[in-house]
Amino acid sequence: MRAVLTGNKYVTAFTLGMQSSMEYRLQFFIGLFNLVFPIGLQCLIWTAVYASQDHQSLYGYDYGQMMLYTVLAGIVAKLVMTHLEHTIAEDIKSGGLNTYLVRPVSYFGYRLSAYMGSRVVSDTILIIVMSVVIGIAMAFHIGEMSLNRVAVAIITLVLASAVQFLLTYTICALAFTLQEISYFFVITTLIVQILSGGMVPLEVFGEAANQWFNLLPFKYTIYFPVNVLNGRLAMNEAFQGMLIQLVWFVLLIGASRMAWKLGLKRYVGIGG
């Protein structure tokens, strides 16, 4: 920890995060299994659903498009979801946050740097897998993919990751108030995954529900980048969605600062 708090502390945090991710290889392979298994299961379910009905499409997706959405949504979910809730909550509950409060280091900056470092290896592999999926989809003319769309989708993915990180960081401020928050995180993670379109396309929930989804940040973390990439959204809709992502980015910066400012007023700092 002392190394992090001297010199270029955030670069050091990034490096430590990357080293940590390479040390826990078993955890990485478990994460890879957690990617493949749900995607495979969902593909089997959708295959059975399409086979049992006469229509060529469901919720505006034909079979190939639904398979493509399912695979891409699973990969994008792995790319943008942070899973930092328990780590940050433990720092708050155990008093580990004290280390950052008494020294000239930003806890937000440290966690962001360490998180980015920890994702280098896994995200590289996920991007390679996604590239293969995109190549197969383009070869079989599934969706309306193009290199221009891929370029725009990369920008939406960066913004989606930023929005998701800030959303997680804001929610973690509840650890200052709630005594037992682990189960709360499990529930919120599941809800966010569903509302983001990580489980099924949001069209499944109907037009009325989607009007509400448009007002929330969640759809812009998974559903939106996937549909920019697969061609379901026109380019003008893609740029409009990117503007909304930027708006949520700014709003969540303010919300996270306010939530943590209020939380720190309640912070006792026992331990550490």
From TrEMBL:
Keywords: Membrane, Transmembrane, Transmembrane helix. The chain crosses the membrane at residues 28-51, 63-81, 120-140, 152-176, 183-202, 238-260. The keyword Cytoplasm does not apply. Coiled coil: none annotated. PANTHER family: SLR1174 PROTEIN (PTHR36832:SF1), SLR1174 PROTEIN-RELATED (PTHR36832). This is ABC-2 type transport system permease protein.
